[in-house]
Amino acid sequence: MRMKTLTEWLSGQETASDRLRRGVERIGAACIEIAGLIERAPFEGQTGALDSSNVQGEVQKALDVLANDVFLARCAEEPAFAAFASEELDDVVAGAAGGDLLVAFDPLDGSSNLDVSMCVGSIFSILPAPAGKAVIEAVDFFQPGRAQLAAGYALYGPQTMLVLSVGGEVAGFTLDRASGAWLLTHPAMQVPPDSGEYAINASNERHWRPGLKGFVADMKAGKDGPLQRDFNMRWLAAMVADVHRVLVRGGIFIYPADARPKLADGKLRVLYECAPMAYLVEKAGGLAYAAKGPMLDLRPDTLHKRAPILLGSRNLVAKAWEASSGDAG
Ligand code: AFP
């Protein structure tokens, strides 16, 4: 059977306006361009660190900056997009006057994987813009994840994939290099409710709080422990890749807050990492929590606000949340 293209699939999504559909297509085009940059990077000397840092004091890779430029350039072509927020930018960038949508994005997630040719990704979140406001400010992005109209990610791995929802089902597309089109290879994705896989950076264990430490110990105890099943651990060090695995075959992904002052709110950013991934996982039947409740209820108060995150298979996440929610300070 012929696979649907992204354009054909979007035309059947009744939850999306025409403007939202067009905007998502622009983002899809940006991701194809970024995939090309990543493939060609070794020939162009673009995988090394630049001398500059982003607003969070992290060293930027040349590709982080290039991917950010591509995202902004492609999205600026869409008159529905009123403003943009990016991991790589200190402040909001204006888009089209009269646009009714805001876009938050991480143009290149997991960039420390680049020099070892491992998976990286791009993440995006689309929010409604306030009506009738001439100048969009950062505060206009401070909306809970439940307000998102669409969210998704591109995964640059063995295949280039685009996974997204515009309010209904979560659909996965694979880039067909021959035609240059995104083809629907993973319709109506569902996170299995149970799983025996977990993803956490275990090298930080000594800094974890007691509830989380106990739950991970229970998973490690396997069949002999209270969870009565054996677990396997996977850590790809790129949220896009770890969450993609969870969406396809279940499991739990955890990036916790811990006792170090720098990690008091975890590592991952709410607007363009946690909220869009929580949106996808919940649309696919899974669960996602921040420190004090559902991730999608969290309203960030800065563009680069961080939050601890726990997401994945419904039953496993519920148990992890029960064990660790008392850890929140
Ligand atoms: P980089 O973009 O700096 O590589 O960070 C990736 C990331 O934000 C997220 O994608 C990973 O899940 C997480 O950090 C990995 O963190 P560790 O450095 O603790 O493995």
TrEMBL record:
<comment type="pathway">
    <text>Carbohydrate biosynthesis; Calvin cycle.</text>
</comment>
<comment type="similarity">
    <text>Belongs to the FBPase class 1 family.</text>
</comment>
<keyword id="KW-0378">Hydrolase</keyword>
<feature type="domain" description="Fructose-1-6-bisphosphatase class I N-terminal">
    <location>
        <begin position="17"/>
        <end position="187"/>
    </location>
</feature>
<dbReference type="Pfam" id="PF00316">
    <property type="entry name" value="FBPase"/>
</dbReference>
<keyword id="KW-0963">Cytoplasm</keyword>
<keyword id="KW-0119">Carbohydrate metabolism</keyword>
<dbReference type="InterPro" id="IPR028343">
    <property type="entry name" value="FBPtase"/>
</dbReference>
<feature type="binding site">
    <location>
        <position position="108"/>
    </location>
    <ligand>
        <name>Mg(2+) 1</name>
    </ligand>
</feature>
<keyword id="KW-0479">Metal-binding</keyword>
<dbReference type="GO" id="GO:0006002">
    <property type="term" value="P:fructose 6-phosphate metabolic process"/>
</dbReference>
<protein>
    <recommendedName>
        <fullName>Fructose-1,6-bisphosphatase class 1</fullName>
        <ecNumber>3.1.3.11</ecNumber>
    </recommendedName>
</protein>
<dbReference type="InterPro" id="IPR000146">
    <property type="entry name" value="FBPase_class-1"/>
</dbReference>
<feature type="binding site">
    <location>
        <position position="87"/>
    </location>
    <ligand>
        <name>Mg(2+) 1</name>
    </ligand>
</feature>
<dbReference type="InterPro" id="IPR020548">
    <property type="entry name" value="Fructose_bisphosphatase_AS"/>
</dbReference>
<feature type="binding site">
    <location>
        <position position="273"/>
    </location>
    <ligand>
        <name>Mg(2+) 2</name>
    </ligand>
</feature>
<dbReference type="InterPro" id="IPR033391">
    <property type="entry name" value="FBPase_N"/>
</dbReference>
<dbReference type="GO" id="GO:0006000">
    <property type="term" value="P:fructose metabolic process"/>
</dbReference>
<dbReference type="GO" id="GO:0005829">
    <property type="term" value="C:cytosol"/>
</dbReference>
<dbReference type="InterPro" id="IPR044015">
    <property type="entry name" value="FBPase_C_dom"/>
</dbReference>
<dbReference type="GO" id="GO:0006094">
    <property type="term" value="P:gluconeogenesis"/>
</dbReference>
<dbReference type="GO" id="GO:0042132">
    <property type="term" value="F:fructose 1,6-bisphosphate 1-phosphatase activity"/>
</dbReference>
<feature type="binding site">
    <location>
        <position position="109"/>
    </location>
    <ligand>
        <name>Mg(2+) 2</name>
    </ligand>
</feature>
<feature type="binding site">
    <location>
        <position position="106"/>
    </location>
    <ligand>
        <name>Mg(2+) 2</name>
    </ligand>
</feature>
<feature type="domain" description="Fructose-1-6-bisphosphatase class 1 C-terminal">
    <location>
        <begin position="192"/>
        <end position="321"/>
    </location>
</feature>
<feature type="binding site">
    <location>
        <begin position="109"/>
        <end position="112"/>
    </location>
    <ligand>
        <name>substrate</name>
    </ligand>
</feature>
<feature type="binding site">
    <location>
        <position position="106"/>
    </location>
    <ligand>
        <name>Mg(2+) 1</name>
    </ligand>
</feature>
<feature type="binding site">
    <location>
        <position position="267"/>
    </location>
    <ligand>
        <name>substrate</name>
    </ligand>
</feature>
<dbReference type="GO" id="GO:0030388">
    <property type="term" value="P:fructose 1,6-bisphosphate metabolic process"/>
</dbReference>
<dbReference type="GO" id="GO:0005986">
    <property type="term" value="P:sucrose biosynthetic process"/>
</dbReference>
<dbReference type="Pfam" id="PF18913">
    <property type="entry name" value="FBPase_C"/>
</dbReference>
<feature type="binding site">
    <location>
        <position position="201"/>
    </location>
    <ligand>
        <name>substrate</name>
    </ligand>
</feature>
<dbReference type="GO" id="GO:0000287">
    <property type="term" value="F:magnesium ion binding"/>
</dbReference>
<comment type="subunit">
    <text>Homotetramer.</text>
</comment>
<keyword id="KW-0460">Magnesium</keyword>
